[in-house]
TrEMBL record:
Protein name as it appears in the record: diguanylate cyclase
Alphabetized InterPro entries for the sequence: Diguanylate_Cyclase, GGDEF_dom, Nucleotide_cyclase, Rev_trsase/Diguanyl_cyclase
Membrane-spanning intervals of the chain: 12-30, 37-56, 62-81, 93-111, 123-143, 155-176, 188-209
Catalytic activities: 2 GTP = 3',3'-c-di-GMP + 2 diphosphate
The EC number(s) this enzyme carries: 2.7.7.65
A Pfam family assignment: GGDEF
Residue stretches making up the GGDEF domain: 251-381
Keywords from the named record: Membrane, Transmembrane, Transmembrane helix
PROSITE patterns cross-referenced by the UniProt entry: GGDEF, PROKAR_LIPOPROTEIN
CDD domains referenced in this protein's UniProt entry, alphabetically: GGDEF
Length: 390
């Protein structure tokens, strides 16, 4: 049996689609987070298989299998819409999709078995495919997903793809050179393969870029955030403090170190889970009291560091507010006892003083602990006291 070499050549595109589908599934298996990926992969696989099937069929068989291949294309198109809808978190309207598919399949049956007409069949099929793909589009547009370039490119190429699908037969008609079976090297078939491949590649690249971006941002979060409290860790605090303290237009800055009093006793008396709960509540209280642009970090254990854009007096007020709020919250410890925190507060003028200011605030915190805990020790006071010989 001989098989025309040009047909084999045309099989490259469906094969690429299947490979891309497998890549997306692989990507999903690694991360298991992007649940829209299997839908897009499924649509690639279905459309790829349908294209391969049609390429391999002898011309006289195309009509007989029109409904079968129609089912694959239609489900592939809806699966794509489902993937896009999943990406933006909206519905792909499955019932409406089913209705559109049923109407198109009836038309395919009529124009293949009752009154065979390949071009009317193509109009129906492509209009149906375009409509199915566009099902989630209005909802996505209302969401205004234009936040980043990736989302914007994704959305508009998706809309363009759906519109191109709908009007493909008309474009082909305008280009002329139609062949009887609408396949082979007919303008329609070549244009269909080319545009499908172009968009399919574009989407695969955008989806993979999205996966990589998410993986990187998850890594960055893991690297920078304390997982228990969602505060910055020591490394991220330094990184975030650098540009702030290097900008002479900002400031004045003050560094605070807060440390929960007798935290070991909380762990020993009520267990680690209660200790963690207390840490989370302290973190919440700290972030509640500071302003946007201030930094709050957990340096480890029960020690918290804050960089506030404020003078010493303002920082002291904030520390006192946090201290009062926490000590008045009787729900933190199971026996209703007060939970207290001590602070050391030191000024800082620029980045070069960061380590010195941290030691300074730490020393003041130590003094606060020595003085009985549940208090705020501020650098100026210490200096004033020293000046007065106290
Ligand atoms: N639950 C919980 N405990 C932690 C965590 N990290 C450190 N700890 C505990 O925090 C306690 C710190 O105890 P200490 O350094 O003695 O401090 P303290 O008991 O608060 O005493 P003072 O600071 O002097 O008031 C230790 O028991 C650590 O095990 C954590 O992530 N979760």
């Amino acid at each position: 049996m001989s098989f025309p070499i040009d047909r084999l050549f045309l099989l490259i595109i469906p094969a690429c689609m299947l490979l891309l589908g497998c890549t997306l599934v692989g990507c999903w298996l690694v991360q298991r987070r992007h649940r829209y990926l299997p839908w897009v992969a499924g649509s690639y696989a279905l459309v790829g298989l349908a294209l391969a099937w049609q390429t391999l069929l002898p011309p006289e068989e195309l009509q007989r299998w029109a409904v079968f291949t129609g089912v694959m294309y239609l489900f592939g198109a809806w699966s794509f819409a489902r993937g896009i809808a999943g990406y933006y978190g909206v519905s792909a309207h499955p019932r409406l999709g089913l209705l559109i598919s049923a109407v198109v399949l009836l038309a395919l049956h009529y124009y293949s078995q009752v009154v065979p007409d390949i071009w009317t069949r193509l109009y129906w099929l492509n209009a149906g495919l375009g409509l199915l793909q566009l099902l989630p589009a209005p909802h996505i547009l209302r969401l205004r997903p234009a936040t980043g370039w990736l989302e914007r490119t994704m959305y508009w190429s998706y809309v363009l793809f759906a519109v191109n699908t709908s009007i493909r037969p008309l474009l082909s008609l305008a280009l002329g050179s139609l062949t009887e079976d609408g396949r082979g090297f007919s303008s329609y078939w070549l244009m269909m393969l080319a545009t499908t491949m172009l968009f399919v590649l574009l989407f695969a690249m955008l989806l993979l870029a999205n996966s990589v971006r998410d993986a990187l941002s998850a890594l960055r979060t893991e690297r920078n955030m304390d997982p228990l409290t969602n505060l910055l860790n020591r490394r991220a605090f330094r990184e975030a403090a650098e540009p702030l303290l290097s900008d002479p237009r900002l400031g004045p800055w003050t560094l605070l170190i807060g440390d929960i009093d007798h935290f070991k006793r909380i762990n020993d008396s009520w267990g680690h889970a209660r200790g963690d709960y207390v840490l989370q509540n302290v973190a919440h209280a700290l972030t509640q009291q500071v302003r946007a642009g201030d930094l709050v970090a957990r340096f480890g254990g029960e020690e918290f560091v804050l960089l506030l854009r404020s003078d010493l007096a303002g920082a002291e007020q904030i520390a006192q507010r946090i201290r009062t709020q926490l000590s008045e919250d009787r729900s933190l410890l199971p026996n209703g006892e007060r939970m207290t925190i001590s602070f050391g507060i030191a000024p800082i003028e620029d980045l070069s003083q960061l380590s010195a200011a941290l030691s300074h605030a730490d020393g003041l915190l130590y003094q606060a602990k020595q003085a009985g805990r549940d208090r705020v020790h501020v650098a100026r006071r210490v200096r004033e006291k020293a000046a007065r010989g106290l």
